[in-house]
Amino acid sequence: MNLFATVLTNAAPSANYRGESAENRAILQKITKGRLQYAIVSPESMRNAIREGLRSMGLPCNRSRLHDEEQLAVKFEDYPDANVYADDFFMGWLIAAGKKDREKIKKEIKEKGRDVTLFTFKRDSVLRMNLAVALEPYRHDTVFTQSPQHLESPWKNADSSQLLHRETIFTSFQYPFALNLEDCKEKAEWTKTLLSVIGQLGGVAGNHARSLFDMAPSSIIIRMTHKLAAGYDTYGFKTEENGTHTFPEIMEGILHDNLPGSEFLIGGKIVCDMNEIKQNALLEKGTTLNRNAGKILEMAGNRAFG
Questions:
Q1: Has this prediction a pTM greater than 0.85?
Q2: Please, which domain of life does this record's source organism belong to (predicted)?
Q3: Does pLDDT of 209 surpass 80?
């Protein structure tokens, strides 16, 4: 069985990138859709936050971020091991080693007492994610801030005060993720924890992670199915002028029997925004509804693994 989900976050101001930039301009990363540009958040930044979330929930993780280096840096505790480390299990890995290095690594692993026949140099990610895309187009909003000049100080980053140009947008983001639940069976409790972390996802890197932007779901659609593909537009969330959350393709698909209602779990604000008639119609089709998006993720975990 597969789990496909689309998350819609709450709307908030976002200035999500603070890496290398031209002079003092901090950009929003964007893609073009139709004639307009939309801000994006990379799956890599969300995966990093999920990794930290798994660690904070008590699961063993192999990779950790080093925050005080001259460039972006991480540290691994050991060679990857999906049976020991939760992040290795869900995120996979790739060790780009030639023939000579491969023999050296296998020897080290054997000396550590590990079964070298179980070791692989690469593993696909069990957790599949795609870009988070803004629902509102970028409208060239800019915020200027100024860093102060350092005087009579033991250190300084520049000789004078700096004017900082920051592209900003007020929007919610939506992003899909997927899990092959057959692959997750051997680590059922880890998978339930992963779903819990996604239900409260924060700390997604960007703007040196100083910006507070909550990537946890305000609304969520989950399909648990034996199908190999989601079978709907995984970027199908809409927000109305009054802030109402909708997902027309799935709602109409279930109500007109084009999609099996019993395979869907719907949670969060989208349920709160539905009238009672539509809620009852979906319940009659076997759809699971809950007003709490985090709770619906927990229910999905229980449906998958008991």
A1: yes
A2: Bacteria
A3: no
